[in-house]
């Protein structure tokens, strides 16, 4: 297995691996009209902490999608142990395996930034119902940085781009979202919640190189704390 940051998250089985963790998720969801009839896609669901919370708390129809099989196995175990009827799908956010206008809400918690935004955001728009809502918590470039700094961040996290607030807004607008609300999220030093989560599901064997990735993530999140911000976006048509 490649020693990448995302594989590291999968092997450690970090739940709530997004800035703000489950507490932020709860706050975001509490402002929406969600009920038992809502159809919700948790895209890049990871180990399924958010999907499980929504299904349990709101009784909604939740679909949990990820392109990482280890993540999905761990999510599946979580849902089974909690007896939750969540649909699990293996697939890519860049090419979603759903019909047009399927979902009332899409949640992307630190996922879209890892994908090709020019493919993913139009996919969100396509599978959302016309009055659907995209809720995204994503990494935002808060300051101009050197080419070398940019390269270090892109290479380490395996992200395809590191967008500023304005670039995110343009990407959403280009895909047809007209109302875009954005709020900055106050971050802990550990931008992805990796070291501060209390929800882990460790794989049996983890090569030492993955512990080094964990440490490097922690180091970079301190080095780039004034550059890497986090934005909470709410996008509708
Ligand atoms: C930082 S983790 C966040 C996981 C989860 N949303 C959470 O908050 O715990 C990013 C997740 O996005 C998934 N991911 C990355 N690229 C993806 C893609 N193109 N399609 C689907 N999932 C993807 C990864 O496998 C990983 O589970």
TrEMBL record:
<dbReference type="InterPro" id="IPR013216">
    <property type="entry name" value="Methyltransf_11"/>
</dbReference>
<dbReference type="GO" id="GO:0008757">
    <property type="term" value="F:S-adenosylmethionine-dependent methyltransferase activity"/>
</dbReference>
<dbReference type="GO" id="GO:0032259">
    <property type="term" value="P:methylation"/>
</dbReference>
<protein>
    <submittedName>
        <fullName>Class I SAM-dependent methyltransferase</fullName>
    </submittedName>
</protein>
<keyword id="KW-0808">Transferase</keyword>
<keyword id="KW-0489">Methyltransferase</keyword>
<comment type="pathway">
    <text>Lipid metabolism.</text>
</comment>
<dbReference type="InterPro" id="IPR029063">
    <property type="entry name" value="SAM-dependent_MTases_sf"/>
</dbReference>
<feature type="domain" description="Methyltransferase type 11">
    <location>
        <begin position="41"/>
        <end position="135"/>
    </location>
</feature>
<dbReference type="Pfam" id="PF08241">
    <property type="entry name" value="Methyltransf_11"/>
</dbReference>
<comment type="pathway">
    <text>Phospholipid metabolism.</text>
</comment>
